[in-house]
Amino acid sequence: MSEPAETVVRVTGLVKRYGTDTVLDGVDFTVERGEFVALTGRSGAGKSTLIHLLGALETPDAGTIEIDGVNLGTHGQAGSSQFRRRHVGIVFQLHNLVPRLTAVQNVELAMFSTGRSRAERHERAMELLRSFDLEHRATRRPPQLSGGERSRVALARGLANDPPLLLADEPTGSLDDEAAEVVAAHLRSLADDRDVSVLSVSHDPRLNDLADRTLRLSEGRIRDA
Amino acid sequence: MTFLGLIFHNVVAHKLRALLTAAAVAIGVMAVLALGVLTTSLRSSATEILQVGKADFTIVQKGANPLDSVIAQNDLTAMGKVQGIDGLIGALIETDKYDSSHPAVIEVGLDQSAQKPFGVIILKGRSYAKDSPNEVMLGFALAQSIHKTVGDTLQIGDKTRKVVGLYRTGISFGDSTMMFPLSTLQGENQVPGYVTLGFAKVDPGVAVTTVKRRVAKKYVQYAPIASLSDFGRSNNTLTLVDAANTGGTILAAVIAISGVLNTTLLSFFERIREFGVLRSIGWARPRIVLLVLGEALLVGVVGAAFGLVLGWAAVNVLQNLGSLRGYFKPRWPAGIFARSLYFAVGVALIGALYPAVRAAFISPLAAMRRE
Fold this sequence. Notes:
The complex is a heterodimer of chains A (225) and B (371).
Chain A: E1 7-18, E2 21-32, E3 36-40, H1 47-54, E4 62-67, E5 70-71, H2 77-87, E6 88-91, H3 103-109, H4 118-131, H5 147-158, E7 165-169, H6 177-193, E8 197-201, H7 205-210, E9 213-218, E10 221-224
Parallel strand pairs in A: 3-8, 3-9, 6-7, 7-8
Antiparallel strand pairs in A: 1-2, 1-4, 4-5, 9-10
Helix pairs in contact in A: 3-4, 3-5, 5-6
Chain B: H1 3-13, H2 15-51, E1 57-61, E2 71-72, H3 73-79, E3 85-96, E4 105-109, H4 115-118, E5 121-125, E6 135-139, H5 140-146, E7 153-156, E8 159-168, H6 172-175, E9 177-180, H7 182-188, E10 194-195, E11 197-202, H8 208-218, E12 222-225, H9 228-234, H10 237-270, H11 272-280, H12 285-319, H13 334-361, H14 364-369
Parallel strand pairs in B: 4-9, 6-8
Antiparallel strand pairs in B: 1-11, 1-12, 2-10, 3-4, 3-11, 5-8, 6-9, 7-8
Helix pairs in contact in B: 1-12, 2-10, 2-12, 2-13, 10-13, 12-13
């Protein structure tokens, strides 16, 4: 594996089709280390598809994706799991937490197969929850948490393995104003304080305002906004 | 949280599914245990019959079950003269109903003079008189079971007998019998001149196999038996019992695997989103397979524990069935418990394998889109 580059995300000529429908048609862009980039576009423009491709949850029809020096095209399925574990954190709009596990257990879940001991996993999960002001909610299960709290638990889980890139698919989409502002501020501080590159799909102007840069996806291509 | 802790947590969190899966395993284990104990006990009973009288070998009619064998006493007398035979005792074995709790008591007809070489030790009272028509001796285990002792009378069919002695043979099968003069039992069963089994002792220093071979060569209608393998060659009963055990075990396994498969597959559909989440956060496929199989293994072990209790209850029910009382004395060899545990683990893992593989190969996105 090559050394991590300053450019964390390098996408070149990315194409994705679903049947005859071409959703992404030659997407090119880069994201630098510690940069917060907002991805916008109308509904159905392919924003979520792009996030899924970057998270190795789908495979492109053409083009290359290089993240933290790793070319995704060279990875098989087993490699994809390892890639997701080591190089990206993903936060979904619906948070996708396991409802019967506590907040801290949900965060620990991401750290299996990383060589950390049980105590280290727990300590790391608690440290992350603390940084998102959730230490006092660590033993609560997702149904006992508010939407904003669930969103922050999902952020903590996404950062559990110290990935250089955090992908967020409308992280404030299901939140009220106050919670959305808190989450947006956390995303900003991830880029500033932890040097994490953040690529976030959003329709939320507050998030776009906090971003270093906004990319607009239209007709299958990136237009700098 | 450890991986094992997560497995335990997942099982406890899905109690109903876990109980249904454990029930499927338990039913299978119960069947395997009961069949295993039944088979082992029948084999032991067969062995005990062969060991009566501490004989070097037993003579039965070829192809017949030991208790249905018919041997002419004249043949037995002639066989006694085969070179190397030290002594040969003939015993008639019949069954009769004593009461509803003892529907098939084993009756042994034996000459008074043959009691000692047969291994009979009189514990209380005396032996029956030669050719006595109304005296009987009871094995001590049978006497305890029917609450009779020396001096009591007992009714068998339309005949009243006086108990004159209690005995033991050192073999549980023999201690549950009642004993009559040979001629009396032959007369009552209208088989004068015939016995059921012959028990042979060979001369000291002479090889049993040599004498057996001589008897088998000269008296082809009879089979000399010194071991279970000899028994198997002359009679297919044990083979059939083993086949029934194997067939029953396979059937129980199919039923249990179907049960585990059903409940685990339902659980997979309920948790499909969770598996998608695990894949999306970097869980590798083998780890998801391990998670599902680990849960099945835990449930299988719980099912095995339930199954052992159910199996024990089933064996007790069988033991107290009127038609089996006296014949079926449960034997619980250690191997049967290990076999039940292997069975439980095996059916749990096989039943859960397909759902585990499906969970591992699900597309994370498709799974997370499921409601």
